[in-house]
Amino acid sequence: MTTQTHFAPHQPTHLRQDLARIAQWITPDSRVLDLGCGDGTLLAYLRQTLGVKGIGVEISDARVLTCVQRDVHVIQQNLEDGLAMFDDQQFDTVVLSQTLQSMHNTEHILREMVRVSRQAVVSFPNFGYWPHGWSILRGRMPVTGQMPYDWYDTPNIHLCTLLDFERLASKLGLRIIERATFNDAHEVHWLAQWRSTLAVYRVTAGAPGAVSAT
After folding, report:
1. Is the distance from CB of 62 to CB of 53 less than 8 angstroms?
2. Are 77 and 57 contacting, i.e. CB atoms less than 8 angstroms apart?
3. What structural domains does the chain harbor?
4. CB contact at 8 A, 146 and 198
5. Which pLDDT tens digit goes with each residue over 131-168?
């Protein structure tokens, strides 16, 4: 008698908001590369719920150890060194979650993401969130939940707005398939450029197209 495996309904409730949306964009039994995978939370979830075959890349010793303890396949490497170890289209999805703003070579990592995978998913804090502008008008760099650092100790070196990212995607020849924006745990549909604190994009290589906000 053959036993068929059934995965749980794909409605993440215990993941960070951007990771939950990313999980909704992942196909069962697919191959996923998570860049800057942290403690392996997303990959562990995807393996358990969708049967995903995942690999993480992480630089932190402590986080790599946590990944190993979670039985997450992880490679310890600095993302600034690139993805030369991976073949073209080796993965179905590559994820870069809340890490883009800390990358020195932003264009290179985005090009590499669409080289090694069929689709890339990127999330980052939205510098266009309206209180940030108000803070700057008052003479201070913004410090918020998505950007909790002072100007002198922040790892965020390339902050951007939604429009900034979309223009860069167009410049690099990336097609935006879908966009989701959030403020805390709530999804933002209206005036997302100013009201959202976090953006998540799903892109692929190809001619730029219209953005679908879902």
Report:
1. no
2. yes
3. 17-205 (3.40.50.150)
4. yes
5. 555 465 666 555 666 555 554 555 556 788 999 999 99
